[in-house]
Amino acid sequence: MTYYEALILTVAAFGVLFMLISAVGILRLPDVFTRMHAAGKAATLGISCLMIAAGIVYPHYLGRMIVLVILFFITGPIATTTMARAAYRTAGSPDKFFLKHNEMK
């Protein structure tokens, strides 16, 4: 195994690990807001690592993959924030959280 192949395997393994952490977080966390946090943070990093690994495997697509990673880092957290706001507005404030300052009201 060359260093090139080891680099690809390492980056892809980190991506798969973060996606696994995200999936376990979505299944195990108690409410929609913490699930959105798991989906937003870990999945963004996991997908980014997998795209970079694919860009390293196919070097002529590396520029496109980097642009896709940048776009995903911009749109991924915005999408999860929007879904969390929609869940807040339809279900209301969760009873078990005691907010001192509620910016959504």
Q: How many DSSP E strands?
A: 0
Distance between the termini: 57 Å
From the spread of the alpha carbons, the general shape counts as elongated
**Class from secondary-structure proportions:** mainly alpha
Overall mean pLDDT stands at 86
Q: What percent strand?
A: under 5%
Outline the biggest β-sheet: none
The number of helices is: 3
Helix content: over 70%
Task: List the secondary-structure elements in sequence, H or E.
Answer: HHH
Number of domains: 1
Q: Radius of gyration, rounded? A: 17 Å
Poorly predicted parts: none
In words, what does this structure look like?
The chain has three helices and no strands. The chain has 105 residues and is an all-alpha fold. The protein has one domain. α1 packs antiparallel against α2 and α2 (32-57) runs antiparallel to α3. The protein is elongated, with a radius of gyration of 17 Å.
